[in-house]
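Re: the multi-chain job from yesterday

Posting the exact lines I submitted so nobody has to dig through the queue logs.
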Amino acid sequence: MFQFAITARNNRARTGIFSTPHGDLITPVFAPVGTQATVKTLTPEHLKDINASLVLSNTYHLYLRPGDELVRDMGGLHKFMQWHGPMLTDSGGFQVFSLAQTRQIDDEGVTFKSHIDGSTHRFTPQRSIRIQENLGADIIMAFDECSDPNDHEYSKLAMERTHRWAEICLKAKRRGDQALFGIVQGGVNPDLRAESARFIASLDTPGIAIGGLSVGETKQEMHDTLDIVTLLLPENKPRYLMGVGTPEDLINGVVRGIDIFDCVLPTRLARHHSAFAPEGRLNLMNATFARDERPIDETCDCYACKTFTRAYIRHLIVAKELLAGTLISIHNLRALIRLMERIRAYIADGTFESRVPELLKQWANNAKRRESVNG
Amino acid sequence: MFQFAITARNNRARTGIFSTPHGDLITPVFAPVGTQATVKTLTPEHLKDINASLVLSNTYHLYLRPGDELVRDMGGLHKFMQWHGPMLTDSGGFQVFSLAQTRQIDDEGVTFKSHIDGSTHRFTPQRSIRIQENLGADIIMAFDECSDPNDHEYSKLAMERTHRWAEICLKAKRRGDQALFGIVQGGVNPDLRAESARFIASLDTPGIAIGGLSVGETKQEMHDTLDIVTLLLPENKPRYLMGVGTPEDLINGVVRGIDIFDCVLPTRLARHHSAFAPEGRLNLMNATFARDERPIDETCDCYACKTFTRAYIRHLIVAKELLAGTLISIHNLRALIRLMERIRAYIADGTFESRVPELLKQWANNAKRRESVNG
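And the result, structure tokens for all chains:
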């Protein structure tokens, strides 16, 4: 369990198989986000149809509602939401810092008020692991602190806390059927990122996550940070770039040796009527689509594209029919999963690196970076 | 086309086959309502899965948005919404009276303001037919006026107008691949209902609709009216009871010789977290379901019941996740379609009439009549 076998490489990019109790992940892989134990507006059948393999859910949300003990008592997250493929939960750390009404951090943990009802709660590394064990995902995360990337002094403090917490999490972990990943932090500070990469790499974990990116830094800073970090990580463990990202970010991440991605972008865009398309992101509410008989993307094999016209989806949006969000979510998720399928095939046949400029050009108009798409 | 073959009878109840250009309807049949060219939150695949056969859509809504000419230019309603089974559109009459902001009725038609943007429009019998021809459903309705059921004087006026308009609609109709049904009106007045039934029966239409029920009258008045009307209608034409109804109404309608029903109740209840179940309607938001590992209905074969627990659906509701509405809609629609499947089997084997008390008892707690579920 949790073996990672690299099957092909293209310079730093690699494709491989990470085995989990709920099936193999073929990497690089993009994970749809099911924050509250549901990928918004989709059934598990839809997820199978788009060839999703890994699904992420959020510990902070599920702890608050319906409660991790309830999920445990209902047989765990897989059974509760009826997704029987691999799952990943985050540690709750990022959400506490971005969503909770108020929070007080100390060396042992974080006390915060729920964004739902203002009630007071406390997360510690041990508690985060216990909650994630109750949820029962295949891949779980060490509790970490994500700091303002440009504040060097505080980033050092948060990084050191993250390192101590990673050790506590490893000791606290009891279940043998979950892979605990440590998280590299350090903001956009090269010295801290190098120190963090070396420390997290030294721990006995089956995989390594990179946190604190796509939180307001520039693209160049993200790329530079990935260059520093991934070169210091062991080759034989999967690397997970948390909360990233746009199609462009996925391509640039794979180039730098990233294996796992997740992001709410495809489903969030869908709720705002925005769809990935060859000619660039389309706002399907636009009147120009009122009589457009083409699918969103003629080259796409998803249910929405094989079945419906832009004109129909535009009508659903204007008429405020929720099916619009379902159909665009199916398409946007399939678009990124299909992109990863192509990337894997290119790595396997040795052409990925040479095709990166072409891939980036194809996705250029879909790659607009949005701030704060982690939530 | 539009042949109606009765295959079995049980006293006044009958089961049969009504052939349409998009397939055969096995009657008695319950039609899900797709007001705006979508059965709310469901894909056409979901409709196939629950064995839906006839789908209704609303002329008033589609005329206003996206416009009947747009639907025509996109290939008609079947192609637009990708439902390739039989479809039915109403005439727009009922919606003008129940939804439009203001309306002025005269002997030639109705002038009204859109409930969407206040713009002024006019429907006449000819216009209603032209719109329905643009939409292209298999079964279309004559333009009618639905009056206050207890106002005898006005009901007579409205009925006479409805009769004149039915004749105009028949003359206006041009397409040979659409079945135009006349509509019996007359409120809850036995003399008017008898007169209307005789008049509409005298027209050359392949089927007959009964309007103006489930609009505020008592159950007894509905049953008495059906008793009067159906006994005066020809045996060889399907009878469609518009906008009805609850499970109890379906059973009581079939007993009185009704063949086609439609109602928004299943999907509207779903949006209010209410599900049909053997023990009576469940409000699935109730805290008693938080740890209930049973499906909504253990005897149900729908995707929601075969896949998810009440606990999970309750979590989706509390977390305001739209998938809840999708799952409950699938179940509620399947429940009524399954009821009709059972009724058809009982009529075929000659046991329906003797089973009516048992059926009514089974559905007693689900049968609460809600006012105004036509919209």
